[in-house]
Specification:
Blueprint lengths: L1 E5 H9 L4 H8 L1 H6 L8 H9 L3 E5 L1
Parallel strand pairs: 1-2
């Protein structure tokens, strides 16, 4: 599965702001469990997402 999102949507998701809710609905609970919502997405989080079969592509 590939998730293509705008980087601002990812930041909204990570910060718990409006717009991030849609991302969580699209990715499901697996991504939620791998991302600390108070931190910027790190390499460790990216590897965890890949481990569950999720590819994240950021578009600017």
């Amino acid at each position: 599965m590939t998730l293509v999102v705008d980087s601002s949507v990812v930041l909204a998701f990570l910060l718990g702001e409006p717009g991030g809710e849609r991302l969580s609905q699209e990715t499901g609970p697996l991504l939620l469990s791998t991302v600390n919502l108070t931190e910027v997405l790190t390499a460790d989080h990216a590897w965890a997402a890949l481990d569950v079969g999720l590819e994240i592509r950021l578009i600017r």
